[in-house]
């Protein structure tokens, strides 16, 4: 299913003074999707939202909403609403008045305002709290008020700026599900900003991974996690063991033999490498298996440094004979004696062929 | 050692109070004793203020029957209300402007506010007098209004500006985002939030105007007398008990306005 474009950024640049926050930024938002901007703090995520909301003006390039340019359109005239990182609830108004604010601005009739406000409060499960002041509510409740205040206007695009990061872990998980549910229920396009990769992976239809004002990769969560475009995306999308290797032979169009500190390994990749080229292997901890050295062949040899019991998984740090340390994370089952490797024990680490991520070697950034 | 400050008969008060505390007591006595004497004097039946000769409200009664004083009081209240109101409107708009917009010379304008705040009354009085004469303005209510608005303005602007600095700028952005134009956002969000500071600014301006003698002396004309000047001409002939009563009333008004203003400014900081 391809959805039509609802908004787009074309070659947008934005500077703050001499500091470049976005350079030549391009992005197409699709109707009804939940797109996440994922990236470290300061990479320009908030700037993207503010540009679309009209709270900042691009230095160059153009932004379109429903096919019309937004150049010269002030924030109040854009059919876009924002859930601010600080929530920005009006402290002098009640919860219901906060939610009704946008409808008042549209000069709707008071009966309709009352009905839609009540419906929005019900949607975020705050019915009955309409008369309270925002500061009387808990953080999670304030977050819902901010959400209701934006959603009640039925915007074309809803912008959410790290709106869950102030909540504690349990509440955040709950709100993630609720947000996703609201998004499906309303069909509104959401642009969600976060620096939390689990949040991004679990909620999004598509993720744009950003670094210093550019998109490094745009795609569905699985692509981002399993087929990262580069080492930055690989490391930002999940826990990574990064091993450097050199190509020694090309055995098939998608198969290479590489040497990792003396150990030959067969790896699969769609990328083209020359013999002698340097590359990096990225191995996800949960893809790795640990075996007793005596009982196994192949893989990488090393010894156990540390074991950490984490309930669902058993994490092991292993010092490879080749030098680097790697971390494994195995699902814990009581009846699997092979999982029990005490520190100091010689082991081998293996993985399902083809599950390694092969990336060109990049100079240090 | 407990109760070092306890008064012990035969040793004298000074001996019973530790030196640090004594110092504090003396300072407060120096500041408040004259006022206490003045207020007591206003209720003292003795005409010359020597010794307590019983409680009376006579002096207040004679104030109420003194046509000149009543006129001056009405004038003072009118000037104070007008000046406080104009200074509040102009000062609030100025504060919103200084807060919302970044323009060249903004820092300089802020600096100028502090300069007017700190500049000696006499300098302001003389320069305004020169200005008013140059403009051929008749000295009286109008010139007093302008002059008092002038010295109240920085108080309002700085008070309101400080309040605006204190709240999240995202609130205005949220209002814009929800469909409010620039002016509507100011009216619906900025002004209601700044209201305690605006009210405090008005109250402080009112007391400043009511108490002012120096500027008023220069910029008013012979036909428009205000209370502080009336008091001045009364005390030139010796301090009469009516003066005590009048000054006590002024003090009461000022004190309650200042307390109210401070309460407004601090009430939502828990
Ligand atoms: N108003 C501003 N003035 C100056 N620099 C800013 C301003 N807003 C953001 N920046 C800078 O622009 C960059 C991108 O900011 P932002 O979009 O807020 O990043 P993110 O939301 O990804 O953390 C950061 O380096 C930040 O310091
Ligand atoms: Mg941000």
From TrEMBL, chain A:
Molecular function, one GO term: ATP binding
Short name of one Pfam family: ABC_tran
Xref: InterPro entries: AAA+_ATPase (IPR003593), ABC_SmlMolc_Importer (IPR050093), ABC_transporter-like_ATP-bd (IPR003439), ABC_transporter-like_CS (IPR017871), Mo/tungstate-bd_C_term_dom (IPR008995), P-loop_NTPase (IPR027417), PotA-like (IPR005893), Transp-assoc_OB_typ2 (IPR013611)
Ranges for domain ABC transporter: 7-237
Swiss-Prot/TrEMBL catalytic activity: ATP + H2O + polyamine-[polyamine-binding protein]Side 1 = ADP + phosphate + polyamineSide 2 + [polyamine-binding protein]Side 1
SUPFAM superfamilies noted in UniProt: MOP-like (SSF50331), P-loop containing nucleoside triphosphate hydrolases (SSF52540)
Entry keywords, A to Z: ATP-binding, Cell membrane, Membrane, Nucleotide-binding, Translocase, Transport
Presence of the UniProt keyword tRNA-binding in the record: no
Domain of life: Bacteria
EC number of this enzyme: 7.6.2.11
GO cellular component, one term: ATP-binding cassette (ABC) transporter complex
UniProt enzyme class: translocase
Sequence intervals crossing the membrane: none
Subunit structure: The complex is composed of two ATP-binding proteins (PotA), two transmembrane proteins (PotB and PotC) and a solute-binding protein (PotD).
Family as reported in the entry's similarity comment: Belongs to the ABC transporter superfamily. Spermidine/putrescine importer (TC 3.A.1.11.1) family.
Function statement: Part of the ABC transporter complex PotABCD involved in spermidine/putrescine import. Responsible for energy coupling to the transport system.
Name by which UniProt lists this protein: Spermidine/putrescine import ATP-binding protein PotA
Annotated source species: Methylococcus capsulatus
This protein's encoding gene: potA
């Amino acid at each position: 299913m391809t959805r039509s474009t609802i908004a787009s950024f074309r070659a947008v640049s934005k500077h703050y003074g001499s500091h470049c926050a976005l350079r030549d930024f391009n992005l197409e938002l699709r109707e009804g999707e939940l797109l996440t901007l994922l990236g470290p703090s300061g990479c320009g995520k908030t700037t993207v939202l503010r540009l679309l909301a009209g709270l900042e003006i691009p230095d160059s390039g153009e932004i379109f909403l429903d096919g019309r340019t937004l150049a010269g359109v002030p924030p109040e005239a854009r059919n876009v609403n924002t859930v601010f990182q600080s929530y920005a609830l009006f402290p002098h108004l009640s919860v219901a008045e906060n939610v009704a604010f946008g409808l008042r601005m549209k000069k709707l009739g008071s009966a309709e305002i009352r009905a839609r406000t009540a419906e929005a409060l019900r949607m975020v499960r705050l019915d009955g709290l309409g008369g309270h002041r925002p500061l009387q509510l808990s953080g999670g409740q304030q977050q819902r008020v901010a959400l209701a205040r934006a959603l009640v206007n039925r915007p074309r695009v809803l912008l959410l700026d790290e709106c869950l990061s102030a909540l504690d872990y349990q509440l955040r998980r709950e709100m993630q599900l609720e947000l996703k549910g609201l998004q499906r229920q309303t069909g509104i396009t959401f642009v969600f900003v976060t620096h939390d990769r689990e949040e991004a992976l679990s909620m999004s239809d598509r993720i744009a991974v950003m670094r210093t004002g550019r998109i490094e990769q745009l795609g569905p969560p699985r692509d981002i996690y399993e087929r990262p475009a580069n080492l930055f995306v690989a490391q930002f999308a999940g826990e990574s063991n990064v091993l450097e290797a050199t190509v020694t032979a090309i055995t098939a169009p998608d198969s290479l033999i590489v040497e990792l500190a003396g150990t030959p390994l067969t790896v699969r990749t769609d990328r083209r490498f020359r013999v002698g080229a340097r590359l990096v292997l990225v191995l996800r901890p949960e893809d790795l298996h640990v075996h007793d050295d005596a009982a196994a062949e192949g893989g990488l040899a090393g010894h156990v440094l540390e074991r950490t019991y984490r309930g669902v998984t058993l994490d092991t740090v292993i010092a490879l004979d080749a030098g680097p340390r790697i971390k494994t994370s195995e699902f814990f089952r009581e009846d699997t004696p092979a999982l029990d490797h005490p520190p100091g024990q010689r082991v081998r680490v293996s993985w399902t062929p083809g599950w390694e991520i092969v990336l060109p070697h990049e100079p240090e950034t | 050692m407990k109760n070092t400050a306890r008064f012990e008969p035969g040793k004298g008060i000074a001996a019973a109070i530790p030196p640090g505390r004594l110092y504090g007591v003396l300072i407060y006595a120096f500041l408040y004793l004259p006022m206490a004497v003045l207020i007591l004097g206003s209720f003292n039946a003795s005409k010359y203020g020597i010794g307590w000769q019983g409680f009376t409200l006579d002096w207040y009664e004679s104030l109420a029957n003194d046509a000149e004083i009543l006129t001056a009081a009405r004038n003072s209240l009118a000037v104070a209300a007008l000046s406080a109101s104009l200074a509040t409107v102009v000062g609030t708009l100025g504060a919103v402007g200084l807060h919302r917009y970044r323009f060249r010379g903004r820092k300089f304008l802020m600096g100028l506010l502090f300069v007017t705040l700190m500049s000696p009354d006499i300098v302001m009085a003389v320069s305004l007098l020169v200005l008013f004469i140059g403009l051929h303005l008749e000295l009286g209510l109008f010139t007093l209004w302008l002059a008092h608005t002038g010295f109240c303005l920085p108080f309002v602007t700085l008070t309101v500006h400080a309040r605006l600095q204190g709240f999240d700028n995202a609130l205005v952005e949220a209002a814009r985002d929800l469909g409010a134009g620039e002016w509507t956002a100011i009216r619906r969000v900025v002004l209601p939030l700044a209201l305690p500071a605006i009210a405090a600014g008005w109250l402080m301006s009112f007391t400043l105007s009511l108490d002012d003698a120096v500027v008023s002396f220069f910029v008013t004309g012979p036909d428009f007398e205000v209370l502080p000047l009336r008091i001045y001409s009364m005390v030139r002939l010796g301090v009469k008990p009516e003066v005590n009563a009048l000054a006590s009333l002024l003090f009461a008004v000022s004190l309650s306005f200042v307390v109210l203003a401070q309460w407004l400014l601090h009430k939502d900081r828990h």
